[in-house]
Recover the amino acids of this structure.
């Protein structure tokens, strides 16, 4: 067990997961790598947080809903990355898809990505450019959640690309539409790598502060 953190990652052995988890910049954040098809509650017993890698099979995640929510209900943190149909197994969240423009990060146009809750500790690590590359859709999170990255269309906020929910479970859910492991593992979109590293750095530092606080 890594002394610096007790963060696990749930992954499936996809090429982009393997690439990321063989990269020392990413792998060093994790105490344990857990293979989704064989997940059991014992795999999570001594973890403070679990990152659910992006683009995992939603059907397999739905089968593990009870295990994952039980983990959060023990006062722990689930970080749910994108493209896992989170709205079908997380409580109280709706989803609306949008066409994906893979080239905003090169075109320099405004995709409508907006910072929210600027005093949240996440923003000491993550910058708005880190989360401004593309999106596949947006969430409407449960009432009482903390918005972190919003999407505006025609000047009106329509939903969230990243939010924190400390209401729906006994712990905390950090949920995003973004899929940074896929893009890091595909060597596509440098901002995705920055977002992944900085998100994990925030999570690690926060867990360390909580343990010593």
């Amino acid at each position: 067990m890594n002394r610096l953190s007790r963060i696990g990652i749930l992954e499936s052995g996809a090429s982009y997961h393997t690439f990321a988890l063989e990269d020392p910049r990413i792998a060093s954040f994790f105490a344990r790598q857990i293979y989704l098809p064989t997940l059991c509650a014992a795999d999570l017993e001594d973890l403070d947080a679990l990152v659910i890698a992006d683009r995992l099979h939603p059907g397999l995640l739905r089968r593990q809903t009870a295990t994952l929510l039980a983990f959060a209900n023990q006062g722990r943190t689930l970080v749910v990355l994108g493209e896992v149909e989170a709205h079908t197994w997380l409580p109280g969240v709706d989803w609306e898809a949008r066409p994906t423009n893979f080239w905003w990060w090169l075109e320099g146009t405004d995709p409508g990505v907006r910072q929210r809750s600027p005093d949240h500790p996440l923003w000491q690590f993550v910058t708005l450019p880190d989360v401004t590359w593309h999106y596949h859709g947006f969430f409407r999170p449960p009432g009482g959640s903390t918005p972190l990255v919003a999407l505006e269309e025609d000047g009106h906020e329509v939903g969230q690309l990243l939010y924190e929910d400390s209401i729906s479970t006994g712990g905390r859910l950090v949920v995003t539409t973004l899929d940074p492991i896929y893009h890091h593992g595909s060597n596509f979109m440098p901002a995705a790598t920055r977002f992944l590293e900085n998100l994990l750095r925030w999570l690690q530092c926060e867990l360390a502060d909580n343990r010593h606080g």
Q: What stands out?
A: The chain has one domain: 7-212.
